[in-house]
Amino acid sequence: MVAFAGYAGDITTSPASRNRVRWAPVPMTGRQEAEATALMIRAQQGDGAAYAALLTALASSAKQYVRNRCGDVPWADDVAQETLLTIHSARRTYDPRRPFAPWFYAILSSRMIDVIRRERRVRSREFGTDVLPEPISPPAPGYDRAAALDGRQLQSALNSLPQRQREIVSAIKLRDESVKDVSERLGMSQSAVKVTAHRGYKALRRLLGGKDA
Amino acid sequence: MRTDDLIADLAGRVAPVRPLPPPLIRAMYWLVLAAITVAAGVTVFGPRADVMVRVAQADYLSIAVLAVCASVFSVIVSLTLAVPGAERTPLLRVTAVAIFGIWAGTTVWEVVHEGRGLPVFTDPHWPVCFGRVVLVALLPAVMLFVMVRRGTPLRPRWTAAMATAAAASAGALAVHVACPLDDPGHVFLGHLVPVMAMAAAAVMVRRTPTSTVR
User: Fold this and answer.
1) What is the pTM of this model?
2) Cα–Cα–Cα angle for A111, B148, B99, nearest 5°?
3) Chain B residues touching residue A46 (CB < 8 angstroms)
4) pLDDT tens-digit series, residues B56-79
5) Within a domain: residue B114?
6) Does residue B192 form part of some domain?
7) What ipTM was assigned to the predicted interfaces of this complex?
8) Chain A within 8 Å of B82 (Cβ-Cβ)?
9) Is position B9 within any domain?
10) Measured between CA atoms, how close is A154 to chain B, in angstroms?
11) Inter-chain contact A59–B3, Cβ cutoff 8 Å?
12) What is the pLDDT of residues A165-196, one digit of tens each?
């Protein structure tokens, strides 16, 4: 078994560009390089056992690499798995005459940057909650959603919308009609219905005291 | 999925693969194909009547040399970027971009020096040359994208831009040999703009044809 955990690259975040991550690989030792190369050559020839041994070592190395640079993050496994998948699809690009480390760490750092970006995107759009919200059951027949909310305030805000916006917002949000049905009933394109509804939501948000996105 | 399960799955369906030849060798293959396409394009369009005279003049020859260099460097860059870790230094990429910069700078300087501006509406021939550049570039571009997709470009936008620029430069070279017009404005609009436009389009496409990596 090859143990790669000790010779991952050095990754730093440039203060000038916070989103860019630079890394400088520390070369593998000669023995580790030779073992990895030998396993990869056998993997390129279709040897499943050698491939499994190589991937196991590389997965461990990838997780260690992430932990060394980012701490005990929950997405270390994601980076390792993404790296393994890319190695699988890229294995023909490895030239046995070239060193293994630059090839592997180029893939690993690229996948890690992708996962970091994805995590940032997710974190910017989601928020954690200790208590899961109650599941929403479908409304019973005859249920008036507008009345169940703060009826007067919502009705007042709805009434202040232009007639077409009011009709579309009410149909989609209060009567659960589909965009397609609304567009057919009002003789508008589906895009126009969506745009009008979006404008209506923005106006409602403003009228009800929320942030105007 | 657990990592161990993933490893078992990948190892279970591993098939023999033949390693790709080095990027320089693959670039040579492509350059041979591009040269044939350029020759075919010149044959179809017909070389300009005074090509043997003009080829001895520095202004004409320099643009041809720049187009050849741009194509050669760009194809090497794009095929190098398709191999993870093969690009040890960005010097090659910088050189390719610098060649395009010199090409564009030279052409723009000539337009400015001429002082007549760009004949966007007065020259009816530049759209023809524009189309010819794209036409000649089409086959080399498709071939290069096929070659790039056999690799694993970790920088898909750069790879796509360089691959497109390499093919478009080959197209521009064919048109440079065939087109009898030397007006700087025409050369800019009909010969250079299509190269830049194709490369820019490749950068702007959200999912580039080189995005083989998930």
Assistant:
1) 0.71
2) 100
3) 14-16
4) 999 999 999 999 999 999 999 999
5) yes
6) yes
7) 0.83
8) yes
9) no
10) 41
11) yes
12) 888 988 888 888 888 888 888 888 888 888 88
